[in-house]
Task: structure prediction
Amino acid sequence: MLLADSAQVADGKLYILGGGWSVTGPEPVPSAVVIKVSVDVPEFHVAHHWELFLEDADGQPVRFETPEGVQPIEVRGDFNAAEPIGVPVGTPVDVPIAVNFGPIPLAPAARYSWRLVIDGESLPGAISSFTTRPLPAE
Result:
């Protein structure tokens, strides 16, 4: 996982702008979470479900007021992979995922984490943390 200013997936590749940051703000800015999932042979042709959650420093969901009431920031999706053609048998497949967000109004001088869950499991390396800068002194 990687934090970026923006990202997209095209032709099975990730195109990343402003990638690799861990400090932002304090003003809200657009951002993206970039994910590359490696799928091994036993998992080919198996449907997988992913969920991405924004959490505060205590591991609690970050929630915001919306027209539908207070909601957590979370995104869900599905993927599957097939054996690649023309490569040696047993070659794993990378599944690229790019999730873009508009400006999220986060508290200044705070720590946050994006946590990825695949098929109900949090996997090693499936968390990306960042800090918001404090407000400038007046």
